[in-house]
## 1
Amino acid sequence: MIFGRITQKWQKLIADINCEKEMGIVTLISDWGLSDYYVAGVKGMIYKFHPNATIVDISHQIQPFDSIEAAYILKNAYQSFPDGTVHIIGINTEESIKNVHIVAYYNKQYFIGTDDGIFSLIFDDEPDSIFELDIPHESSNLTFSGRDRFAKAAAHLLDGGKPEELGSVRKELVKKILFNPPVNEDSLKGMVIHIDNYHNLITNITKSEFNRFTSGSEFEIIFRSQKYKASEIHDSYGDVRPGEIVALFTSNDMLEIAINKGKAASLLGIHKSDPIVVARTKN
Amino acid sequence: MIFGRITQKWQKLIADINCEKEMGIVTLISDWGLSDYYVAGVKGMIYKFHPNATIVDISHQIQPFDSIEAAYILKNAYQSFPDGTVHIIGINTEESIKNVHIVAYYNKQYFIGTDDGIFSLIFDDEPDSIFELDIPHESSNLTFSGRDRFAKAAAHLLDGGKPEELGSVRKELVKKILFNPPVNEDSLKGMVIHIDNYHNLITNITKSEFNRFTSGSEFEIIFRSQKYKASEIHDSYGDVRPGEIVALFTSNDMLEIAINKGKAASLLGIHKSDPIVVARTKN
Amino acid sequence: MIFGRITQKWQKLIADINCEKEMGIVTLISDWGLSDYYVAGVKGMIYKFHPNATIVDISHQIQPFDSIEAAYILKNAYQSFPDGTVHIIGINTEESIKNVHIVAYYNKQYFIGTDDGIFSLIFDDEPDSIFELDIPHESSNLTFSGRDRFAKAAAHLLDGGKPEELGSVRKELVKKILFNPPVNEDSLKGMVIHIDNYHNLITNITKSEFNRFTSGSEFEIIFRSQKYKASEIHDSYGDVRPGEIVALFTSNDMLEIAINKGKAASLLGIHKSDPIVVARTKN
């Protein structure tokens, strides 16, 4: 009997310890840059509410207001994170009647931001749940929701709080639709959607679209009005000699054009949004 | 009795566990940039002395030697952090007879750096205490105090050490005085003190100064020799249409001029230190 | 007796707690930049395998493919870190028959990367052990080994796993040899190997080489074809007036040329790889 009580007491103590050190990850993606107090302001606020948080910067170098770029980066980053991770999207954070602040639960992770369509670009299908935030801002000023509202919401979730405690259910997301590569009998017309730090060109053509279109027959990938071509898909950059063009699929299965050890975008003179066409070779 | 002793033993054990995981936050602000080993050197040293530290980068992109910019960023960032946070200021770290290394305790947080006047810009009034560091550098070389001295001092504070163990009491801070917006009957003359990542213009005119000057009457905010004006204060950027000029107060209550979804500094041709004048509208 | 059993039970419980919070540091150095999902992808994967990891960015701004720069930065950063730290080198990560993925144990720390010679530049002598990684990639795609292989290997080491469980022993490193400052009777011919954020010039002349060459006699340090000279070694930048040239040793004992509060590289028109010559003064 007496042991039973002691045990309970200790169990409680140990539960406290475990509880206290509950970690949990919050990521941040934004267009705040790295020269201002914005990023640190959000982090400080998260630690104030949840001292044991692990905070990860995805990127703060998103072009100001560019939701599409932020969606591309976050879509490819979040899948590496453990279940329960909370992602704060610090872009176009100003709330309006049309674009409200939400928390969405998708793929066992939480996403907090302004629903201007960015969520529909990150997710492949409908999220499990959506709640419109109605927790008050920490300040009377409404220009810094990342710090004054999203950080609080994130800390609430890390503490094991439920998303429904942050606001009321919302039925659906604002939809943003991206140009999808049109296919006809002879060609699959994609475009460059991202240029990475190596000046590699990432297109909006997925591996499965590519394979469906080529279905084993010969092809040419044409860019910069037929000036440059590739007619083979490689497994790695090193499959071609340094300085040569190589087509391959990225680690997230998008068609990529690169130059081994070189800078494709600048050397080939190709920019974001430029067309990349896959054509069946005429026999 | 016997239970009492067990309890004590376990309490000790559990205290050890709690002790070991004592976290504590250190922030870093500097002009070290992100392409060198300086930031990592400081972090490694902090972890060596205090493995459970949580280290937060405020910014390492401060213009070299620009204490005023660093003070502006840190002043606006530190207030989001929990009590007990330790801030390392890695700018102009070289010690001289005039400018010594200090730790100051202010607003329940610690600030470590070189007292060249920067502390007087961060604090609104005198700190609770100031100590001149006299702990030895970790290396015979004196060019990297951020790593070889400040990191050690920060770890000492995170470990629960007292600041007075780091050096001897110092009476006062070196004072740096910034140009304050002069007011006369007709105008309040401020200037741009910061341009953020969105090219928003932050001025040195506070909300209270502004309100005291305008006291409910009509006004004009004039910049670039009367070429551009604003005659209203808004609550958020979205109160005006994209591309239009908007005046509002920042989350830290400074007058800000912006262009909704646009880049005010470059579009209006305004630079840091340019004048921003608030004038009473003549009737 | 009965107390003994309780004690064991609690010891186990407490061991579990300690175990769970085993931290351990992983650092990342790469040419991935800060605008992409690459850095976050690697971090997410590390947290997935080892939730309590402490991850430190050394730099992600290494020039693409520049192993020599990465080696310089890591060599100077790693020494500040505690024993047991794991360093992931995310540069030229593509594996080939000649350049395999390895983990090396040196100076009580682990280094994971592609053995293209970079390890031989980081270490001063042979590492204690080298293992060639043969753990599978997390993805069928081989273009992102930093995330799909190195992160797993790092988590394994943080978990207390042995490096020999990651692959088979490898006898030696690929050797990369850097130009060493040639010495003759009259001069010691070095070069600029790094320009830091302050535009300070760091040379490949070590303090000991310098001292051996000058051995107490008078000298001149000549750069930009005799246009600029220095004939004294100072202890700190502040030993000369702002705007004046100062020669000193860096915190890692390399000869450095700087301008106090100024930008030596741009003001003197000196670039990476430019010669810096130490000459004995003729009497």
## 2
Amino acid sequence: MLKFIKKSSKKVGLPPGTPIHIGERKIEKARITIIDYAEAQFQECEAKKVEECFPFKDKPTVTWINIDGIHQVEIIEKIGKLFDLHPLLLEDIVNTGQRPKMEDFGDYIFIVLKMLHYDEKDKEVKAEQVSLILASNFVISFQESEGDVFNPIRERIKSGKGRIRKMGADYLAYSLMDAIVDSYFIILEKLGEEIEDTEGELVTNPTSETLQALHNLKREMIFLRKSVWPLREVVSVLERVESALINKTTLIYLRDVYDHTIRVIDTIETFRDMLSGMLDIYLSSISNRMNAVMKVLTIIATIFIPLTFIAGIYGMNFKFMPELEWHWGYPAALLVMVIIGVLMLIYFKRSEWL
Amino acid sequence: MLKFIKKSSKKVGLPPGTPIHIGERKIEKARITIIDYAEAQFQECEAKKVEECFPFKDKPTVTWINIDGIHQVEIIEKIGKLFDLHPLLLEDIVNTGQRPKMEDFGDYIFIVLKMLHYDEKDKEVKAEQVSLILASNFVISFQESEGDVFNPIRERIKSGKGRIRKMGADYLAYSLMDAIVDSYFIILEKLGEEIEDTEGELVTNPTSETLQALHNLKREMIFLRKSVWPLREVVSVLERVESALINKTTLIYLRDVYDHTIRVIDTIETFRDMLSGMLDIYLSSISNRMNAVMKVLTIIATIFIPLTFIAGIYGMNFKFMPELEWHWGYPAALLVMVIIGVLMLIYFKRSEWL
Amino acid sequence: MLKFIKKSSKKVGLPPGTPIHIGERKIEKARITIIDYAEAQFQECEAKKVEECFPFKDKPTVTWINIDGIHQVEIIEKIGKLFDLHPLLLEDIVNTGQRPKMEDFGDYIFIVLKMLHYDEKDKEVKAEQVSLILASNFVISFQESEGDVFNPIRERIKSGKGRIRKMGADYLAYSLMDAIVDSYFIILEKLGEEIEDTEGELVTNPTSETLQALHNLKREMIFLRKSVWPLREVVSVLERVESALINKTTLIYLRDVYDHTIRVIDTIETFRDMLSGMLDIYLSSISNRMNAVMKVLTIIATIFIPLTFIAGIYGMNFKFMPELEWHWGYPAALLVMVIIGVLMLIYFKRSEWL
Amino acid sequence: MLKFIKKSSKKVGLPPGTPIHIGERKIEKARITIIDYAEAQFQECEAKKVEECFPFKDKPTVTWINIDGIHQVEIIEKIGKLFDLHPLLLEDIVNTGQRPKMEDFGDYIFIVLKMLHYDEKDKEVKAEQVSLILASNFVISFQESEGDVFNPIRERIKSGKGRIRKMGADYLAYSLMDAIVDSYFIILEKLGEEIEDTEGELVTNPTSETLQALHNLKREMIFLRKSVWPLREVVSVLERVESALINKTTLIYLRDVYDHTIRVIDTIETFRDMLSGMLDIYLSSISNRMNAVMKVLTIIATIFIPLTFIAGIYGMNFKFMPELEWHWGYPAALLVMVIIGVLMLIYFKRSEWL
Amino acid sequence: MLKFIKKSSKKVGLPPGTPIHIGERKIEKARITIIDYAEAQFQECEAKKVEECFPFKDKPTVTWINIDGIHQVEIIEKIGKLFDLHPLLLEDIVNTGQRPKMEDFGDYIFIVLKMLHYDEKDKEVKAEQVSLILASNFVISFQESEGDVFNPIRERIKSGKGRIRKMGADYLAYSLMDAIVDSYFIILEKLGEEIEDTEGELVTNPTSETLQALHNLKREMIFLRKSVWPLREVVSVLERVESALINKTTLIYLRDVYDHTIRVIDTIETFRDMLSGMLDIYLSSISNRMNAVMKVLTIIATIFIPLTFIAGIYGMNFKFMPELEWHWGYPAALLVMVIIGVLMLIYFKRSEWL
């Protein structure tokens, strides 16, 4: 359940803007890495103290400060003070129960996203909150733990390949968002395969495990939906926001992210549709099988109950039962039984029960 | 049912603007408390008479008048007269069947909210209506009973911690709304836990109590939704209203409340989705179990009915039944029965019924 | 069915604007009452002829002409001619199959509403169409039969209590609408109680009468919805229409009616949600009970069928059945039967069937 | 299926604007009738050749050209050439698979509608496509076959009654649309009656024919919906279009048609709601009846299986069965059986199965 | 599953704008054909090298470059360089997981569509992605494999029939889109026939194959919907886009495509409605048949179980059973059995079970 609702109750009664970490602690110690670059320049370092980030604040080069681990609230608070960030924003960064959202604070834009990965062990989708702060010449990103989704971007900056070194902080923020959205496709493929497997089972041999699998997939879809739907709004607003922080040339890239988001949502909806269709099929299959079971019972009972009755009659001990004395009584009784049985079978054949 | 619809019929035929208390009387006697503060000043008192509130009306300091208990309509009417409030507004304050709403009367803004708490004894969510009147330098709040949700705010004002003493009446109104919305998260966590428990039962051992629990949770969701959905509109309008009563700096805080409201609604919708998925699972489980029961019956009946028939045949009293005379007749009959039984079992094995 | 669709086919082929009465005739003879008032003046009379209304047309005082009974089309036509009303409007007044609607004809505003009452005998909600014409200084109201919903307003005008004598024709029209909307709450309470009763039955003892009751409640909800939903639009348009006929001071009252309408709609939707939840519970209960019935059958059959088979074996008449000769054969057979029975019971206990 | 989708595949690969008749041929030979009128003038004739229509093109009087039968594509093409109509429009006229739509071509407005009638023999709703071309002084209407829906309008023009002779071509077009929409009410009444009948059956004696009837009604609703829903948009756009072709005075009549369309749609939705409620009831009834059947079986089996077992015991042929020798053995056995039977009945009474 | 989600994971980590082919390789080698025409001029050739396309870039005539096969990414890249296309666009062309979309890049418009065809062998709808680039005087189209949908257009250009040679590149792009949308109708007819067949089966003899067929049709509908829904938006935006690339005269043709798209969507929705209605019928039929089976069982069991019990009684071996000694004992017992049987049958007749 923690997946669907975070223990926000810890915060009740505190003044707004009090940063309280809500969520799981995923790594031991927070880690701050700084990448500073311009078209012809590149510098990468790990900060021991938060204060080391400060000199980059007003440098004309693009600076990317990445914080892994948000449970050390004092670090977040110091960053907030150094970069002059609104307290409500800091509160949101450390509360992992946010929905994806985007807020324009004028000097900087604040973006919250969900990074998703499929946990093969627990067979479920897990989410990690990523917050981005985009200012004119720096991007600060906050992650719950060290992830590898951003590594290719680091590589690209380092190697100077592609457009990234030539563009500003907005393009960097876009690249981070793009990397996150792209990673959703992997989740969707995984879930798509599971849906396919479950559908196969449904056709060949539906059991109550199939039902459980369907239920789990539905839950994952609810979770995915909750994590991705608001993103559409976020990117769409980013595209339309009239902020000096976002260059025109970057807009076309944001449109591309928007497009990907729509495709993700589209696929989630398609999967939901398919899953609910599969549940119908499951229910129908159960009913069908019940029918089959009942038919077997009915056929057997309907044939043998009357026959047993006849046998019962001639098992009575009345003194005067003339049939019992007949020489052909026994074969005649057997014959009558066979005839009744055959008639029953013909009837069932006719009714298409056999 | 009182929870879903209040006895508004009492009011039928009365002229509009007649304040009639509709709802339960929750405390004995209404209680008026006044808190008056400025950045460097703080005063708290309890009013014995309504008239004691009047001097605060035009004081430049921020005044918070809180009335616990709205069943004493004459108090509400006096307040209305003293502060020159519209009669329709007074009518709304004492009628606890309102939906959350916001109305801009020019000189003051009227806000109706629902305060929710989870009643552990009755295992259901209970609502209390809170009305706020926000004017340029005072806030009047009306509650049905004394609650502890506003206590942390009182503490903050008293202690002078945080921003609150430096800000105006709009920030106070925001703080009250924020406190109420924050308290929703506690309800959601409680319900989330119950949903999780019920889901657990569903998997291990679904009974008709599980069904009842599902039904109750669904009802609570309907109730929650009814109480919280309109709030979204309320806060959104507050944010966009162009009123001199709300300062620009407060807007960002209202946006935060809006955000929280959206998260609450989002979670309610997620819970609803999950509950309806759980009902499907419940129904499927029942069908599955019925199938299992039917299979047992069918297997037993299908094996023994033919055998009993054979036994019946040799229980007949015909004079001439040669088999009865055979020395190996009895063992042969038993053997035939065993063979038939084994064949049946093999058939069931093949059909995957066993 | 007449409740859901009126015999509009009578009108097919007639030129537009031909007034044809469609609906039930509810009273014998139409009755015209006139109330004329100003702040310090009050006059009430019953018109024998339609022409008696004419002098009030241009009087500066506010005039309320109420016509009970719309089946006498000639009266409606005369009114139309006297007050210069559009023929399409007259057609709508006498056709009781209208949806609530509002049309601005410039000099006057035409409003159609549904007055609802709960028929205790037929246990269903019945509707009556009310049409209002609001001009600058008069209101004409058309009802299908004499109703008592407007009586409190008459009383208020007569007694001069409240605001009504001081306000214009728009306030009178508002008062009529308000009276109608207020009366919806009584219906909702009635239906709420019935839903509660039905829910109680559902928990204690669901029968096919409960199903029928659910179905009837659902139908009533469909009917209510059809009657009330469009009202939202009507009031909302009235509020926003820029007509000289509606004063600014009246707008706040219209907002109040709008608010009530929303609450009515909200409650209807809540009831619908609850009813559909109840149907799910009903279906699940039936399945649960079927399960219980099947279990009893299965337990009894599964225990006794094998035992009867054993009895059948020793009822066979083979010459050589050594067990029959044993002295302890009979007690041994009984013992075996008891053991089998007990084993079966243990098995059922284990499977949690008992 | 032809009802739901027309064989549009005939057209694939042809250049746009190629008129190909798609649909059934409903009459033998197309028929062109011309009515030309002004306030004081009336002329009616049947055209043998298409060219006879031409002189009316620029006459100041209002001309109504009606073509029954659209399968003779060459006629449509000639009309198109004479009146200078866009080829895409001609293509639409002869393709009966259109949805209702409205297109403004500047000099003329093109409207497609569906004329519906209830086929008593096939017990289904059938549709016929009607296309209207409204120009400043003429209206051309295209029907698939000769229908009688327009006859009252012809009569009204001929007799000069009502407004029609005084108004322009736009009023004529409105009259035709109004006649079509009015005819929908007849269909709705017919279907309403059938729904009522089916509902009656549902309560008294639901069979699989009832299910079939429900299914057919649902299909008809889907068909009706498909035919009428787009009309709402059509009329609404017509009302708002700023075309010189439509006079202000006609707008109020269009609003009336809009109103009727809304009522038709409203009723269709209500019927759909009712039908889906009825299906739920049907399913519940089946379950209820299955329950009843199972109870009978269970009661009979549960009472007699144990009794038969006891009888079986005393039918065993063991040498030493002391009870068999007792004088009161037989009555005692009977008594035991009666006691067991009565206990079972009491149990079923207690469980409310009887 | 590949049908619903493409392996987009290949792309994860790559910089945006990297063209990677995602999808099946459908033909061996890409093929480039060029058609260049003006009103009085026509030239058709097949390009061996991509560079051969370049001279047509700035020719005043209309040029249509068609590329069959998009798996040869280097060709797409060269085209991109020659015609100065945005890298994100190239990425989209080779990734067949796009939804239909339209993007205006100023100098050119980029359109993605889905070409559908019904695979008779696999009995499912298959999709192929078609991308169009519309510039002022050329159109570039990308297909996954050689298709015959565009052949009639080639023919029309060659023969000079119709409007196409007189119009610009926008009309050519429209023609391609129109050809694709028209081809949807064939799919719909095919699916319509299958729905009809399945519905027939449903009425006459529903089996679990019918269920499977329903499920498959539902899946196809989900797939179709996913492929066609976004097209509505695409065409609608194209119609409204204020681009110099699209002439006014072409707009009316786009409106026609829009209209067709709406009809396709409409039909898909109708089919979905019908399929979900059919599933309900299927479930009800199963329940009905189960009922029938249970009735047979119950009737047989209820009649014979009591009779067998009576036979069992007189099969007991008590010494003193006076009835056994009576001369008419046996016939009397038989008579009692017949009476009981007949009473049972009458009871079943009364209960309408027979």
## 3
Amino acid sequence: MREIKGGEQMSRANLITDVAGVLVGNAQDARIATGVSVALFEEPAVAAVSILGGAPANRDTNPQIDGTVEGIDAVVLSGGSGFGLDAAGGVLARLRELGRGFAIGPARVPIAPQAIVFDLLNGGDKDWGRFPPYLALGYEAAAQVSTRFSLGTAGAGYGATTVDLKGGLGSASAVTSRGHTVGALVVVNAIGSAIVGEGPHFWAAPYEVGDEFGGLGLPSDIAERARKLAWKGGAQPATTIALVATDAVLTRAQARRVAVQANDGLARALRITHAPMDGDTIYCAATGRLPLGEEPVAALTEIGSVAADTLARAIARGIYEATALPFENALPAWRDRFGGGVR
Amino acid sequence: MREIKGGEQMSRANLITDVAGVLVGNAQDARIATGVSVALFEEPAVAAVSILGGAPANRDTNPQIDGTVEGIDAVVLSGGSGFGLDAAGGVLARLRELGRGFAIGPARVPIAPQAIVFDLLNGGDKDWGRFPPYLALGYEAAAQVSTRFSLGTAGAGYGATTVDLKGGLGSASAVTSRGHTVGALVVVNAIGSAIVGEGPHFWAAPYEVGDEFGGLGLPSDIAERARKLAWKGGAQPATTIALVATDAVLTRAQARRVAVQANDGLARALRITHAPMDGDTIYCAATGRLPLGEEPVAALTEIGSVAADTLARAIARGIYEATALPFENALPAWRDRFGGGVR
């Protein structure tokens, strides 16, 4: 029996950029109410993906993730549904300027897998003319990557919603008992809810570190409130898309295991997820700074488990940090309904 | 926005056999401390599988589940690790006597996918001679299928363990708001724990119906206790394997969606799961008595969500109903540690 205190130690900024080699940039369009987030890796990262949603939309994901080229340069998360898949093109344009990409003779082709969320019915003006804004937004997000970035109504989370509250962009980080840093970046646009019943408690409360999303714990009548099974009506698509990253040295198969296990964070932070119209997609990227060590299976088990916890925390933070869109009938933010003074 | 009270109404016996067309039989060997559980479908059922563990072992699963033959006759869950995969052979022998199976001219080949758990280090006498007992146990379990069967230390759950308590065989059922019955059958042999910290509270408490596993709710200091990340040591395999069944008319793709979504029940009832040495495998079978109706996506979303809840409940019931194995140093049962008087 192995007993550790996993995920207890919060990293420096409690952002995915606490993982060495990961930078993040956001760009958004307030009128259209959408945006793009880019995670750029300082060196090509070993990556894998787990797509457990029933209605996913991705670009450059399966062929690249499972193909010959092992290192990826960036992961792109955006709004815009299928239209949003232009964003990776803007990221590639920026990576080309930086001289990044897989070398084929003197040519270089950057690798930037992408997932999207459906934010076409959030009140924004989607009458964008002939071409949607995502190519430009992708470039802009990639051009301003940094170790610091905004959460909540920002980047790809700008136009995101859940069934009952404004969604958003979330992030969190942790360090395992063996010293591997694990971080998560997530766009919370879930079909269901991140709060128990009518709120304010978050489903992710058991995994909260400090009071990073209010420190409210769980309600005593949770079994009664949990009976509520609410989701966006009809067959409206919804999605939670994420990147989990670690500084561990992982093979692609190990990264795939972490991506699969990280889905448990969705299950624990959201009711419901992985549904028929969800496009839930989780990337895992390993920046390869710290080997797994002498007990690789145990180290990997811990990284995967902490990745699930960290992603659950990032989901709650995305909701907690969000502000409402300035449109009539827009969904309220968590702080609008439950008060911002908690912080 | 759709709001329903899903999974609130418990079916008659709170067993997977509340789903019309599903029968279950158990067989076990006390000396070896192992067993087999069989779910037999009265008519061939549409089925699918979701294998999210990192170290699965299965028989007649992917080719049959994804192949040309759509109807399956039974699902077999057993102990014995790789040796246990003989059990499906015993089930086929029984199905052959019953005249069941896919017809190829006058020949009939029954279809019985199987998953196993690793129970080779539970204190039982694994010195079984040349051939292991699983062929005979599979036959015996299939020969005594019924609408009533034992939970806890029974069938494939006989030798099952978790990191801190005796594991077992669990089951539960529910009826959706649209009238579809959903049931779960699970062998809880998890790498981690079904209880929060040192217990006695179950992770599945938010989904409990009545006091089916003690009615204890969750502890108020859950965030503190949740920090514990404990699992079976070294690279020991562990696994939670399950069948979720419904009387809905589903296509194979729809059954696959329910199997994927049911994994959320593992994530919510166990800490941890889907780990590198887990063989976590979930089958879904649809007995096709009640069409999805005029809103098929919504009906399917509800069935998948209720399947996740029902599987979480079944996991807790499997632990709650277990009794300890009669060996020195055997893991205690939940009732041994926390009292049986709660019931």
